[in-house]
DNA sequence: TAGACGTAGA
DNA sequence: TCTACGTCTA
């Protein structure tokens, strides 16, 4: 059940600072940074319009997100790249991808969490990177030859 | 990574009482009751012999565990009943099933956690039921027609 | 690398 | 009911 104190909102989460580290997606949920345990893009719907609230980057599977200090090139979701039994498909402008596109047009802040390997090689860990704005997005051919969305996010100064 | 304070041991876990409730398998791990997030039978290996430390009962999938106040009929693991794309197979006397059989022979305590639906219908919850001994085990034909282990566990009085 | 009684939301 | 950037052990 969802007995979580903090609701999913756009922007800063009180008590959370840039550089804070976490071990599990479940922890991100508890502190209010990112509520979807198995999904990289979290979003809310306001008056029928989806807006991204947070994204978690990864190097796993075919998600080769590029992280520079202040710029992130983030791979969209969908296409079933994980499940090897299913064929890869073009990503669609729905759900989280649509939310990121809307966040760009409406200039809404997006929380960015960087996912990576944990120090001991087993498991993962997550670092809160702060608030970003979606600057641009485009389509690329992924490893599978199918269309993949790429979102460029830039850190909000200050 | 496994940065958990309590190691996986047989028997009582300090600070945990019968009736204590939890929401996630991950919580069971943190408090030291059950370390395997996606597996029902947890065990340790001592001098090359596997012994069960804890089991989590369930009503999901084809795991129709029967719970009476002091007796649990627990379904063994394996057989791939979950993954519908794979054919069901006979369960084997390996891993967790072997650990439970060894716990019976050597009269080792097993922690029992009862898994069930959460109050709101979404999600699940887990209740610590206390220490049990494996009294008996046998093979049955499961729903799929394949061999399934059933373990009878009885609550240790007091 | 694959398998395992996981979770939440569309 | 299915999908989703999970998480651990063998």
From TrEMBL, chains A, B:
Keywords: Nucleus. Its main location: nucleus. It is found in: Chromosome, Centromere; Nucleus. The keyword Repressor does not apply. Residues 11-155 form the YDG domain. One of its GO terms (cellular component) is chromosome, centromeric region. The keyword Nucleus applies. This is YDG domain-containing protein. It comes from Eruca vesicaria subsp. sativa (Garden rocket). The chain holds residues 70 to 227 of 227 of the full protein.
């Amino acid at each position: 059940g969802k007995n979580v104190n903090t609701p999913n909102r756009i922007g800063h989460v009180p008590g959370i600072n840039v550089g804070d580290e976490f071990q599990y997606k479940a922890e991100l949920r508890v502190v209010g940074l990112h509520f979807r345990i198995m999904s990289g893009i979290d979003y809310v719907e306001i008056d029928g319009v989806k807006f991204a609230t947070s994204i978690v980057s990864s190097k796993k599977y075919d998600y080769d997100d590029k992280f520079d200090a202040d710029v992130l090139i983030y791979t969209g979701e969908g296409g079933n790249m994980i499940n090897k039994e299913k064929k890869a498909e073009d990503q669609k402008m729905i759900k989280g991808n649509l939310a990121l596109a809307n966040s760009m047009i409406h200039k809404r802040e997006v929380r960015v969490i960087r996912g990576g390997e944990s120090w001991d090689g087993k498991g993962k860990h997550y670092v809160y990177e702060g608030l970003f704005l979606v600057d641009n997005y485009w389509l690329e051919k992924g490893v599978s030859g199918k269309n993949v969305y790429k979102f460029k996010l830039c850190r909000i100064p200050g």
